[in-house]
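README, section 4: Worked example with a bound small molecule

Sections 1 through 3 covered apo chains. Here we extend the same pipeline to holo records, where the ligand is supplied as SMILES alongside the sequence. The molecule in this example is nicotinamide-adenine-dinucleotide. Nothing else about the input changes; the structure line simply encodes the ligand pose together with the chain.
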Amino acid sequence: MDYVGRTVLISGGAEGIGFAIAKALGLEGMNVVIGDINSDSLNAALAKLRSAGINSVGLTMDVVKADDWQRAVALATEHFGALHALINNAGVGGKPGPIENNTLADWQWCIDVNLLGVVQGMQAAVPHIKQAGGGFVVNVASMAGMIGVPYGGEYTATKLAVAGLSEAWAVELNPFNIHVAALCPAFVSTRIHLSERNRALTHGQTTKAEEVELPDPESVMSQVVTNGIDPNLVGQRVIEALNDKELYIFTHPNYRQAVQKRYAAIDAAFERAESSAIVGHLRDQAVDAFVPQ
Ligand SMILES: NC(=O)c1ccc[n+]([C@@H]2O[C@H](COP(=O)([O-])OP(=O)(O)OC[C@H]3O[C@@H](n4cnc5c(N)ncnc54)[C@H](O)[C@@H]3O)[C@@H](O)[C@H]2O)c1
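The generated complex, written as structure tokens:
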């Protein structure tokens, strides 16, 4: 993978995983453009990147807004001459809990940021990456994009969608020399469990930012996130995996069995369909032409 002198745009790049990836790619020699909804953490992040000798600029943006994406790609191309890569990272944890506790506004917030934010990032950046002759995209999904997580319905729905879209886009963009990957970490020590802090800045939250109720630091979710791995490991792992042109980027090999269990259940379901008196006869029929073989 070529990094030196090329330009990457990273959404949600001011903190956590996004910032770690920004630093890792910057240290490889990329020009870095970070977009984030929080202007204070954006300025702090830019100061840190610049003090590490990384060519970087930033803008305050909300991934939900198409105009903000246009401003982001314009900043990248005007400042650095071209755009070669996108890290679709900005995301929120949603509102974990039983099905009936989540309002449609909760769902809308999660879908708008985690799913449609990624789609809009692709729509804004891909034409420029094509124009630059190719590059890469990393869509930040999650281990929750590999396994359905109970009490995390809307988060799982968006992350499974991002993993699936990345598979589709990897095939679609391969002829344009654009590598697409889905990053699927399990728990990483960031502020994802405090995502409600950002909701006041987007939509669905009627309370002011300073009055938003954040989860108890002793709660299970707070504990698993704060005990997660160092985001810098994720940043370095992304470089390793990009160099190997991996489609799925895993950071937690210890989750392999859990994912295998899911695939075994899917495979067993195919076996039952094959022996079904109703649909079993379709087992030898060629699959539709648009399905990647
Ligand atoms: N931390 C984990 O355990 C974990 C695990 C798997 C996947 N992820 C994914 O990693 C990505 C980054 O999350 P993180 O863990 O670093 O969380 P984080 O909350 O520490 O950082 C998220 C960053 O995105 C920004 N952001 C939030 N909403 C935004 C919006 N609408 N527009 C622009 N910027 C916005 C925030 O200001 C923040 O800088 C997310 O997509 C998340 O779902 C996190």
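What to look for in the output: The pocket of nicotinamide-adenine-dinucleotide is lined by residues 11-12, 14-18, 36-38, 41, 61-64, 89-92, 113, 140, 142, 185, 187-188, 190-192, 195, 198, 202, 225, 228 (CB under 6 Å). The first strand starts at residue 7 and ends at 11.

Section 5 describes how to batch many such records.
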